[in-house]
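PROTOCOL LOG
Step 1. Enter all chains and additional molecules of the complex.
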Amino acid sequence: MNLTIATFVLLGLAATGYLMGRRRAVRVTGGNTALLHSRPVYHGWYVALACGLPAIALWLAAIVIGDTLIDGAVIASLPQDLQQASTPVLNRFLTDAHTLSLGGTPTIEITPALEQAAADYARLDALRGWIGFVGAFAVGLVAFGFSYRRIAVTTRTRQPVERVLMIVLLIAAAISILTTVGIVFSVLFESLRFFHKVPLFEFLFGLQWSPQIALRTDQVGSSGAFGILPLLVGTAMVTVIAMLVAGPIGLLSAVYLAEYAKPRVRAFAKPMLEILAGIPTVVYGFFAALVVAPWLRDAGATIGLDVASESALAAGFVMGIMIIPFVSSLTDDALAAVPKALRDASYGLGATQQETITRVILPSALPGIVAGLLLAVSRAIGETMIVVMAAGLAANLTANPLEAVTTVTVQIVTLLVGDQEFDSAKTLAAFALGLVLFIITLGLNVIALRVVQKYREKYD
Amino acid sequence: MTEMTANPPAAIHSGKAAQARLRRRYGAERRFRLICMGTLAIAAVFLVILIGSIVLRGWSGFLATEMELTVTLDPAQIDAANPAQGNYRTIVVDALQREFPDVTSRSDIRALLGMVSNGAFVKLQNMVTADPSLIGQTIDIWVPAASDIDMLNKGYIERDAPEELRRVDDQTLAWIDTFEADGRMKTVFNWTFFTTGDSREPELAGIAGAALGSFWMLLVTFLVSFPTGVAAAVYLEEFAPKKRWVDIIEVNINNLAAVPSIVFGLLGLAVFLNLMHLPRSAPLVGGLTLALMTLPTIIITTRAALKGVPPSIREAAYGIGASPVQAIAHHVLPLALPRLLTGAIIGMAQALGETAPLLMIGMVAFIVDLPHGPMDAATALPVQIFLWADSPERGFVEKTSAAIMVLLGFLIFMNGIAVFLRQRFEVRW
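Step 2. Run joint prediction.
Step 3. Record the structure below.
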């Protein structure tokens, strides 16, 4: 049974339930629907949910449980050497067999074993489909009959339907929690496996980062070195450069827009900043690699400086441009929250506008501005494409911004793009780096929120 | 203090020192104002340089160089029963040799053939396959030129450069001049760029595959994140009890909005690929990953939109006997819809420009075929830009910039719709 068709048939059953339930509700009143306890629509939904929910639930259960059973059956019929293969290899094989059975192109070579597994998948999938579908449809029909017959003038269907709706809404709200839990667990599990291979201490305090690709198992240094410090230093350097560009420009341009600019300038400058904010990071990366980096190298050469073509300066500078609108809009919000009375009081004492801004408005907006800058830092640390395209790949423990450095995000990308072996320390290291990145950005975010809450002045 | 006693009090505001002080203060005022204005100007200059450098590099990517060949479709080279298997390479070589009869050595012939793109063979093959009656005829046909010739024609390879530093040698240059003098070389609009998928050859590479991949991905993203986001926002804004766990959900959503996109890529890799065994490189997986990423944005904008509908609307609905659910579904949501859609479109625009999470879930593969559904292997526009930006061939630079222009075009279009919706349907209470 085709999964899509079966799902649509079950949904069709629910839709029929909706239409028939609504019609019956109108009919039982003899046309005067004002007599009904609940609107006819609710009766329709009542029937639709009563037959649709159990049917779809059963159907989904059949798919999920069936998947496990089918995987087990396919694995059992595989050749010995594949059954003994490591979990990632086996998983990849199964995924590809499944892809092949659905008519797709597998990522690995097509072998007889793969074709056999694909055929097994096709057969078992069909069987599972039929069993699940017939069961779900039967349950749906029975529920349909019961709920349909219950519809009467006094039946209260609004309450149960709205209760179901509430549950649906709650689930939607909980998905964000699930996402967080998913992030934490997915990076945490792989990270724990990584820390089995590489001690946590070595990871956090090692000065060497070289996750080499082992061409041969007996190769010297094939295990690689996984010290995160050079990456953190590189990330910090790029971030500092970015903030040196974005901080002053974003802050002062926001001050100008909020305090000085005429409406006409605002009408022009606001969209400009929005465009700057809307440009995809890959475009900034291209700009950094193709325009800024060569320009910096040439400029460095004319004054006798040796600038690497993948210097931290180029990446950080362009990242700074990217973050300007972010800083600017958060500062703007903070400035807008300062009450007008403070400004007026300052002007009343004879202060100039500049004195008012630097001595009254900025200090009272400071918590908001600091929070905004912290969020910008977190943004810069997590930014990927600019550094992937414009910063270096080799870890380099240096304090010279003209040299090439690498960052945490660059390493995650280089470790995970291309062929992956899921058990190697190299691939797992990417998840450990992801965990570090997640903790740092989350920490900055939490601190930013605390700063706002703790130091915000209440004016009313 | 000594100053105070030396001057009478009135002089504090009118004396020489006071005037100097005032001048200094006004000077500081002017300087500060200029600096602030300057920073805004700097931001504007950055934007102009950014867009300008991309347009300057990219406009020529929309153009292609073609050459006219007089081709004899020799029946000896093409089997009429199976025209797809014809020896089109030899046919093109023959055509070129007839053009330059004095070229005889093998290496020179290879250089001659190097002027024409591989697309020429494909074009001939498609023509003959579509119309086998052409076999045996001699026809004039415009074929795409090789990337180096294209670059030369557009002026990216300098003719004056010494031969050993030039990718096109003097001999080829002479051949090209002959073509040009005969009017058999022209610059046309590059339709290939908009109709094909990726290619190793810059002159044959197109963005249609990537654009379609982005389309399927955004479709999945929208279908997942819009209903879920709106439902979550409605719950949190209208129905959630004021309890601790609801606060946790709120804080969590705000934190999620600040999580780097690459971490969502790791989540997609671990959950959708490794756990659920969905196919790699599929727009479905990309769409789901991006949906989780845009969810916080949509929830936050939807809540703002719901807050914007005044309580009087809800109270009026309650007053005529509506239940809370009915008040929301029949009155509040329809009124909030324009702002809701605006938020959704802005979220989609963000998702369209996102690259990093897609690298994690294998959407960086070299894919020539156009994807016909969310399960086909595909890449996305920004990823295509990333891939081309990494290519060493000179011809890909203009293609990358051109692709960026197309991507920016889509983004401007989407944001334009959002602005239009906001202005056209926004109700002020």
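Step 4. Note key features.
Chain B touches chain A through 89 residues (CB under 8 Å).
Chain B has a mean pLDDT of 84.
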